[in-house]
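pls design
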C-alpha cells in the first residue's frame, strides 16, 4: 500500500566538494532555538523515466532508493499552491521491490502512455541531516547537506559528475511556514549558497550528464501561443484545446488518488474539450475531431458515474436538513444514506478500471497525436477575431432556438426535456466564448458571464428534475418497507416549487442576457 507525504522545500547549490559552502549558524534564524545534527547516511537511488524523458518534462520523479529510513520506491508529483513560493510536491512511497510498483506507474500513465519506463540516472548521495527545533523542542524543518554523485544510465552520457546541495524542508508535523524558509535562505545566501537552478537532483543530473550535443530535457508544452488579437484562429483554438488536454493529463493522478474535486475538474476539462471540437469545426477538421469527441463523451460518463450521485445526495441531504424535526416521519435520514451508498457502490472501481483500460490509453495517444499534427482547416490561418466570433454567434443562435422552444413548451416532462437541451446549449456557448477570450477580450468575458447565468438557472432546474425522480424512488422504497413516505413527498413538493420558480425567472433573465448590444459586441 502506498503512503503519501507532502514536502515543502527549497534547494540550494553549495559548490563542489573542493569548494563547498560552509553551513552557517542556523540558530540566527527566527524561531530556530537549536540544531541537532544527525548521522551521515549513504543513499543510492536509480531514477526511472521514458526514453524521451516525459516525466522529467513534467517535473515528476520516480526512483528506487536504498539507504536511509525511508528506502523504497518514491514518486514525486508537483503540487500547485499559488500562495507558496517553495517547491511543493506529494511524495508517494511504496515498499522496496525490483520493478516499478503498479500503484505508482498507474499514477504516471497519463504521461508515459504506452512508453516503457527505463532506469535513466543513478544518484549516490552522502547526506548529513540537521533538525531545526524551536525553543520548546518541536521540529521546525530539516536541513540536509547532500554530497551527490550522478551517472547517466540511459542513454550513456558524460562521466560521473559531483556537486553539493542543501535542501531545507519544513517539518510535516510542525507549524513553521515560509517565513522560516526565508530566514534560513538569507543565512545560506550570506554563506555563499544560491537557490538551485534545477527543480530536482534528477533535473540537474540530466543536464550535467547529457551526451555531447544532446538537447536538454524540454519543459512540457502546456499552452501554445498567447492568442492575442494578432494571432490566427488556429492559434487561439489550439491554445484552448491544449489547455484542456493538459488539464486531463495533470488531473489524472489526482483523480486516481480520489483527491477533492479532481474527478469533477477532470470531467469538466473533458467536456470543454469536446465542446471546443463541436464549436470550432471551421478551424479543426471534424472528420478527425468527431471520433475523439465520442471518446471524450465516454470518458465524461465514466468520470461522472459516482460524481452525479454524490451531487444529488448532497442536494437531498441539505434539503432534508431544512425540514423541521416534527415533519421528518420515519427513518428518512437512514434511508437516504442507504440509498446513496447503494447508488455509489462500484463507481470508484469502475472509474479506475476505465483509466487503466486500453480505451482510455488510446484516447490519450490520439489527443497527443492531434496536438502534434493539428487537423487545421483553411480558416485556421485567418485572423482570429472574426473566425472565433462567428463560432460563438453560431452557438448563441442555437441556444436562442432552444430557449425559445423551451419557453413555448407545455409544462411538465416536455418542458423539462426542452430546458435540459437548452442547458446543454448554454454550456457549449459558454465554453466557445471562453475559448475566444484571448482574441476578443472583454466582450467574450462578458458574454461568458451572461451565458453562465442561463446555464446555472437551467442547471438547477435539471438538478430538480433528477432530484424529484430520486425522491419518488425513495418514497416508493419507504412505502414497500411499511414506512411513511410523507417527508419524501414534502421534499418533492419543495423541489417542484423550486423548479417552477426557475421557469418563471427564465423569460426575464433570457431577455437581459440576449440583448442585441451583447450580441453585437461579438463581431470580431
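designed seq:
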Amino acid at each position: 500500500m502506498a503512503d503519501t507525504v507532502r514536502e515543502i522545500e527549497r534547494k540550494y547549490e553549495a559548490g563542489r566538494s573542493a569548494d563547498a559552502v560552509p553551513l552557517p549558524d542556523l540558530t540566527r534564524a527566527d524561531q530556530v532555538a537549536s540544531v541537532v545534527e544527525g548521522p551521515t547516511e549513504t543513499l543510492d537511488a536509480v531514477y526511472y523515466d521514458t526514453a524521451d524523458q516525459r516525466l522529467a518534462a513534467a517535473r515528476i520523479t520516480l526512483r528506487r532508493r536504498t539507504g536511509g529510513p525511508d528506502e523504497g520506491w518514491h514518486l514525486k508529483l508537483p503540487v500547485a499552491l499559488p500562495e507558496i513560493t517553495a517547491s511543493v510536491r506529494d511524495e508517494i512511497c511504496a515498499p522496496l521491490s525490483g520493478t516499478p510498483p503498479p500503484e505508482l506507474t498507474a499514477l504516471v500513465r497519463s504521461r508515459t502512455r504506452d512508453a516503457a519506463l527505463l532506469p535513466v540516472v543513478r544518484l549516490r548521495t552522502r547526506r548529513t541531516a540537521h533538525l531545526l527545533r524551536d525553543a520548546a523542542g518541536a521540529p521546525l524543518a530539516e536541513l540536509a547537506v547532500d554530497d551527490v554523485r550522478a551517472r547517466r544510465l540511459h542513454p550513456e552520457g558524460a562521466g560521473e559528475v559531483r556537486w553539493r546541495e542543501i535542501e531545507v524542508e519544513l517539518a510535516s508535523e510542525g507549524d513553521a511556514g515560509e517565513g522560516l524558509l526565508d530566514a534560513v535562505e538569507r543565512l545560506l545566501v550570506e554563506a555563499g549558497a544560491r537557490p538551485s537552478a534545477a527543480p530536482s537532483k534528477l533535473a540537474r543530473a540530466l543536464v550535467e550528464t547529457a551526451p555531447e550535443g544532446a538537447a536538454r530535457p524540454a519543459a512540457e508544452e502546456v499552452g501554445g501561443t498567447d492568442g492575442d488579437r494578432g494571432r490566427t484562429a488556429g492559434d487561439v483554438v489550439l491554445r484552448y484545446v491544449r489547455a484542456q488536454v493538459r488539464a486531463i493529463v495533470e488531473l489524472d493522478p489526482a483523480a486516481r488518488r480520489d483527491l477533492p474535486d479532481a474527478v469533477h475538474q477532470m470531467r469538466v476539462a473533458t467536456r470543454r474539450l469536446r465542446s471546443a471540437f463541436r464549436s470550432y469545426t471551421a478551424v479543426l477538421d471534424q472528420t478527425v475531431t468527431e471520433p475523439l469527441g465520442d471518446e471524450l463523451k465516454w470518458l465524461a460518463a465514466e468520470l461522472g458515474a459516482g460524481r452525479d450521485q454524490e451531487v444529488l445526495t448532497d442536494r437531498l441531504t441539505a434539503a432534508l436538513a431544512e425540514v423541521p424535526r416534527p415533519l421528518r416521519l420515519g427513518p428518512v435520514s437512514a434511508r437516504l444514506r442507504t440509498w446513496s451508498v447503494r447508488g455509489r457502490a462500484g463507481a470508484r472501481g469502475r472509474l479506475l478500471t476505465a483509466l487503466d483500460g486500453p480505451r482510455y490509453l488510446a484516447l490519450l495517444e490520439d489527443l497527443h497525436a492531434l496536438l502534434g499534427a493539428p487537423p487545421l482547416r483553411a480558416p485556421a490561418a485567418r485572423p482570429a477575431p472574426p473566425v472565433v466570433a462567428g463560432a460563438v454567434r453560431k452557438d448563441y443562435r442555437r441556444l436562442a432556438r432552444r430557449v425559445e422552444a423551451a419557453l413555448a413548451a407545455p409544462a411538465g416532462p416536455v418542458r423539462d426535456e426542452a430546458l435540459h437541451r437548452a442547458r446543454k446549449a448554454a454550456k457549449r456557448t459558454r465554453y466557445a466564448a471562453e475559448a475566444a477570450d484571448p482574441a476578443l477580450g472583454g466582450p467574450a468575458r462578458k458574454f461568458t458571464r451572461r451565458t453562465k447565468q442561463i446555464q446555472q438557472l437551467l442547471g438547477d432546474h435539471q438538478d430538480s428534475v433528477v432530484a424529484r425522480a430520486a425522491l419518488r424512488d425513495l418514497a416508493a422504497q419507504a412505502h414497500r418497507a411499511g414506512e411513511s413516505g410523507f417527508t419524501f413527498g414534502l421534499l418533492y413538493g419543495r423541489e417542484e416549487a423550486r423548479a417552477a420558480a426557475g421557469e418563471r425567472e427564465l423569460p426575464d433573465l433570457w431577455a437581459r442576457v440576449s440583448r442585441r448590444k451583447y450580441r453585437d459586441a461579438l463581431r470580431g
